[in-house]
Amino acid sequence: MDFSLTEQQTMFRDMVRDFSAKEIAPIAEQMDHDNAMPDELVDKMRANGFFGLAFPEQYGGLGVDTTTYGLVVEELSAASAGVAVMVTVHNSVGSYPVSMFGSEEIKNEVLPRMAAGEIAAFCVTEPNAGSDASAMTTTATRDGDDYLINGSKIFVTNGARAQFYVVLARTPGTTGHESLHAFLLERSAEGLSIGKKEDKMGLRASDTVTVDFDNVRVPASRRLGEEGDGFKVAMKALDGGRIGIAFQALGIGRACLEASVKYAGQRIAFGRKLWHIETIRDKFADMASRLHAARLVAMEAAFLKDAGKPYSREAAMAKLLASEAASDVADEAVQIHGGYGYTKDYAVERYYRDVRVTRIYEGTSEIQRLVIARSVIRELG
Ligand code: COS
Questions:
Q1: Residue 314 and residue 301: Cα distance in Å, rounded?
Q2: What is the pTM of this model?
Q3: Taking the domains of the chain in order of start, what are their residue ranges?
């Protein structure tokens, strides 16, 4: 595996770094404060192809490889992790199920629209089904050539802005993963409504809402995969999504390290810059090393995915290592900033809040460990 970036990867990274510095970083604090993202920013991102990143060129996307996609997510996250999550959810869990499991007809109709910026969301989690995803109770009742969907999904990223919703639902009266089906619904569907918007600790630029389904009719042709494939659709989508979240954590972690080094170059204590104080230098060494190690694993997971090899375990490792490294790095960044880091005058306060969810969503750290441990036992047991 060659870790050097290709010309195209470097070009994308630099382009997004530039876009983020001009268009996102200057309003990141404001978005955090407002708990909202301006439509103009979303429009600019649409015009710049951010919603078509991971979509094949034949469907109007940019068709970038997973490493390039990861680098884009990292750059966006270093400016605003809330903006980044909108892009990752759309390009991964909101759309993979269509590109991997949709019929040719759905793909031809829907993927170009998604790639052009009609935003996608992923509806799995319910009030009583989080880590135990197969405990969901939203139902899909067969009615001729259609299904009727009833239930509620919570914590839906992009839910308020989305045009498309990948929704998991089960045959009524059943339990377990075998009776779960995946569907693609559109915003205009009668009976689909947007409920409570969460007032989150972090990622406040991004919208997270409840989506309710009241007898929403969906044709069987909009089912993704066969009947009973729903759980696998979700798991496969999450495998890919987790690589994006690893890069998101790396972006936040990198922003923390950069802010800390900059701060320490200006702050004087005991008659010298913090740069020259051994305990601070040790922190820099640990922060940089942890992020670097996690980045290598994330790049390996991206490489395996593009090579068409199994990558579920590596994606879980990447998310686990990157989210935990970045959380510790954010903690140290606040520590280095001292009292200032505990105020909204310094961006590390936002990074510290933003990074927290990377250990929770798209599978908690505990779930990543479960996935990794099962795979290790399968291999070595
Ligand atoms: N890819 C393809 N298939 C997969 C898979 C994957 N990554 N992971 C599991 N499956 C399949 C299994 O092979 C099994 O199929 P068979 O019965 O045909 O063998 C089926 O799915 C059930 O798998 P398993 O028995 O492992 O299911 P569990 O209920 O034990 O749960 C975990 C598996 C805990 C890993 C799963 O529920 C999970 O990832 N939970 C976290 C959910 C999550 O990330 N939520 C966040 C939502 S988005 S914010």
A1: 5
A2: 0.97
A3: 7-115, 120-226, 232-380
Q: Is the CB of 131 under 6 A from ligand 1?
A: yes
What is the distance between the alpha carbons of residues 7 and 65, in angstroms, rounded to a whole number?
13
Question: Does ligand 1 lie within 6 Å of residue 239's CB atom?
Answer: yes
Ligand 1 atom nearest to 241, measured from its CA: 48
Superfamily per CATH, domain 232-380: Butyryl-CoA Dehydrogenase, subunit A, domain 3 (1.20.140.10)
Tell me if 154 CB under 6 Å of ligand 1. Answer: no
Q: What is the pLDDT of residues 257-308, one digit of tens each?
A: 999 999 999 999 999 999 999 999 999 999 999 999 999 999 999 999 999 9
User: Mind listing the pLDDT tens digit for each residue in 114-152?
Assistant: 999 999 999 999 999 999 999 999 999 999 999 999 999
Q: Is 365 in the pocket of ligand 1 (CB under 6 A)?
A: no
pLDDT at residue 1, as a whole number: 82
Query: Which residues contact residue 379 at a Cβ distance below 8 angstroms, ignoring those fewer than 6 apart?
Result: none
Asked if pLDDT for residue 2 goes beyond 90, the answer is: no
Which residues are tagged catalytic?
Answer: 362
CATH class of residue range 120-226? mainly beta
**Assigned CATH for 7-115:** 1.10.540.10
Instruction: Give residue-wise pLDDT tens across range 79-120.
Output: 999 999 999 999 999 999 999 999 999 999 999 999 999 999
φ and ψ of 194, to 5 deg = -95, 125
Tell me, in angstroms, the distance from the centre of ligand 1 to residue 233's CA.
9
DSSP annotation of 22 reads I
Contact 133, 170 (CB under 8 A): no
How remote is the CA of residue 234 from the centroid of ligand 1, in Å?
8
CA of 102 to the centre of ligand 1 (A): 20
Of residues 63, 70, 66, 84, the one with CA closest to residue 19? 84
Which residue, judged by its Cα, is nearest atom 8 of ligand 1?
235
